[in-house]
Design brief:
The chain contains one helix and twelve strands. It has one helix spanning 68-74; strands at 7-10, 18-19, 27-30, 38-40, 45-49, 52-55, 60-65, 76-78, 83-85, 94-99, 105-107, 112-120. Strands 2-3-12-7-9 form a five-stranded antiparallel β-sheet, with no helix packed on it. Strand 2 and strand 3 form a beta hairpin. The two termini are 34 Å apart.
């Protein structure tokens, strides 16, 4: 497991994102709603502020992912999941929550709304070719390997 330092400005009154357990990959991120709660009706989405601003090292990205408990229990997810925060972005991190459930869902100030994973990425240089290497799978797509 890599350990890196990431600069952070936390304009909220909540703790900085933190890991729930030692081996957790994602850090819990909280909603910053000083003006009051936001109600998401079924099918509705909203940009939820976090009050967080970060400076990632070159070669890293921040992924914003749904919380499994919110997804299972209430149908709350992230529209652009996973959301990506690039290393050169310096604005506030916002989370686009969507209510895929059947009931209204209230997002309260300080509520854990997503997980943040910091990870390395690679840049690609394309190599144009006329043919790709053959594999056992070839063009088999969705469901190709069956369900057993």
């Amino acid at each position: 497991m890599d350990r890196i330092k990431v600069k952070i400005i936390n304009k909220s009154h909540h703790p900085a994102p933190d890991y729930g357990t030692f081996e957790a990959a994602g850090m819990d991120v909280r909603a910053y709603l000083p003006e009051g709660s936001i109600v998401l009706k079924p099918g509705q989405r909203a940009l939820i502020p976090t009050g967080l601003f970060i400076q990632l090292p070159e070669g890293y990205e921040c992924q914003i992912r749904p919380r499994s408990g919110l997804a299972l229990n209430y149908g709350i997810s992230i529209v652009n999941s996973p959301g990506t925060v690039d290393a050169d972005y310096r604005g506030e991190i916002g989370v686009i929550l969507i209510n895929l459930g059947q009931d209204d869902f209230t997002v309260n100030d300080g509520e854990r709304i997503c997980q943040m994973v910091i990870t390395r990425y690679s840049h690609v240089t394309w190599e144009p070719v006329k043919e790709l290497d053959h594999t056992k799978r070839e063009k088999g797509a969705f469901g190709h390997t069956g369900t057993d």
